[in-house]
Amino acid sequence: MNSKAIKVFYTTADIGISVRGKTIGELFQNAAKGVSSLLVKDVKEYMPNEKKEKFKFSAQSYESLLVKFLNELLYLYETDFLHFTKAEFGKLTELELKGNIYFKRLKENAFIPNYDIKAVTYHNLKIIKKRVYYYADIIFDI
Q1: Cα separation of 100 and 78, whole Å?
Q2: pLDDT tens, 25-73?
Q3: Which residues of 121-139 are buried (b: 16+ CB within 10 A; e: fewer)?
C-alpha cells in the first residue's frame, strides 16, 4: 500500500481511509486497494488463476459511484473470498462507471481477516481536487 496515496484513520466506532490520486480513476483504484488492505492481512496463498468481473454503475456523482464500486468489492469478498488486485475503467464519468475488476480468490485458511467491514458509508464523503490530486476520506461501517 502506497503510504502517500492511502492512509488509515479511526473514528469512534468505525474505520476510514484517506486516499488520493492524480485522476479520478487512480483515486478509485487507491480506494479499492485501501479497502482490500482493511479486509485482509497476511495472505499466505491464493487459489490459482485471476478472476475478472464486469461491472457497470450509474449514479448522480463521483461519490455515489465510489460507494457503489467499493460496496461491490465488499460483496464479492464476502460471498466468494475475492481479493481485489486491479480495475480497468472503460468509462468513468460523474454519472457512469463501467469496466472490469480483477481479483484473486483467497485460499481457505491461508489468510488472516483484518476488519469486518459491513458497508461503505456516505458520512462526510466528498471528492475534492487540490492542485494536481483528487482526495477523499472514506468511512466504513464495522
Answers
A1: 19
A2: 999 999 999 999 999 988 888 988 899 999 999 999 999 999 999 999 9
A3: eeeebebeeeeebbebbbb
Among 115, 103, 101, CA closest to 28: 101
CATH architecture for the domain at 6-141: 3-Layer(bab) Sandwich (3.55)
* Alpha-carbon gap, residue 27 to 127, rounded angstroms: 9
**What pTM does this model have?**
0.92
* Strand runs labelled E in the chain: 6-10, 15-21, 40-41, 46-58, 82-92, 96-106, 112-113, 119-120, 128-130, 133-141
State how beta strands 40-41 and 119-120 pair: unpaired
Name beta bridge partners: 48: none
Q: Which residues make beta-bridge pairs with 129?
A: 134
DSSP state of 69: H
Contacts of 66 by beta carbon, 8 Å cutoff, 6+ apart = 27, 28, 31, 120, 125, 127, 136, 138
